[in-house]
Design goal:
37% strand; 28% helix
Amino acid sequence: MDIIFLHDFKAKTLIGIYPWERKVAQTIQIDLEIALPTSRACESDHIEDALDYALIVKRINEILAEKHFSLLEALAEHIAQTILREFKSPWVKVSVAKLGIIRGVKKLGVCIERKSKDIP
């Protein structure tokens, strides 16, 4: 399996269960590992056979702008399902963390792995 990754992607978004979290954007960090649908890109050297990192980042930014999530778990699941469905990835690992939200903790978050329902 060939995997691309995006690490330390930071963005501001409204996320959380507390009233102030619905008004003040917080910085989150997203790390992704995304399985390529095929290994053709390694042989062809053509972007048509790969996943375009810029399109993935653009799509995640759209998700963050469109929807408010209460839980990091729900955001991670939404990102995972979007990548599986829209980018035809067979497998994805999504980590989402809030930064500096609790004194003494640099970041806290969740990490999930999902695979396409088309793959047994």
